[in-house]
Amino acid sequence: MLALFNRLPPSVTALLLQLAGGALSLLLLRITGINPVPLAFALLCGTLSAGLSHLAGQARWWLAIQLLFAPALVMTLSFDIPPWLFLAAFLIMLTVYWSTFSTQVPLYLSSNKVWHALEDLLPPESTRFIDLGSGLGGVLTHLARVRPDGHYSGVEYAPLPFLWSWLRTRPYPNCHVHWGSIWDERLPACHLAQYDVVFAYLSPVPMEKLWHKAREQMRPGTLLISSTFSIPGHAPQQTVQVDDLHQSTLQVWRM
């Protein structure tokens, strides 16, 4: 059973376990003959779903989501909120996180202190730089401003962050953002041989895949920099500790 869950995306596993928790809750109530208020029933569903998620080996933060999902839903429905607000919220979340289901990379935003740390890691000469998963474009616009001699590219898959970063980078002629997946080899910007520095702030899941892509495409002597997330089995040649809210660490590999 655990092997089956490991082959599924975590979000699908969480949904199945949430449904299983609800089904077990209904079965328990039928056996005991108890008829609880909706919030108590939701708490039972959340507790059982969180327990099943723990047994399935899901990450700790999924347990909190499983525990609170049903109670939060019941509490929200108790308010007199117009249905169109739920639709609007869903559409906004969809444009921000729609790629997370397939990529397992949520929207992470680098801090200003990370931007400055990256600035210090750039080679002194004119540099071609790419941010894989460029989010709202903060890294790109900062570097384009402080190092105008370089060329800065970004790739972003989520529609709303892409639109935001595209508008944000318009004033900088040496800065461009491309819409698409960082794994799409049909997108010329995603071929890493053309860059001197490749930066990524992704998630633990795709780091090994990123390493293989970098080894295949990046030129000798170029830099691969990952914020926070390490590459299994490959220790970085340099680490830079950043004193920001998340205590970020920049890990640097010279290819």
Automatic annotation (TrEMBL):
The keyword Acyltransferase does not apply. SUPFAM superfamilies: S-adenosyl-L-methionine-dependent methyltransferases. GO terms for biological process: methylation. It comes from the Bacteria. Gene3D superfamilies: Vaccinia Virus protein VP39. The chain crosses the membrane at residues 12-31, 37-56, 61-79, 85-109. GO terms for molecular function: protein-lysine N-methyltransferase activity. Keywords: Membrane, Methyltransferase, S-adenosyl-L-methionine, Transferase, Transmembrane, Transmembrane helix. PANTHER family: FI06469P, METHYLTRANSFERASE DOMAIN-CONTAINING PROTEIN. This is Methyltransferase type 12. It comes from Gallionella capsiferriformans (strain ES-2).
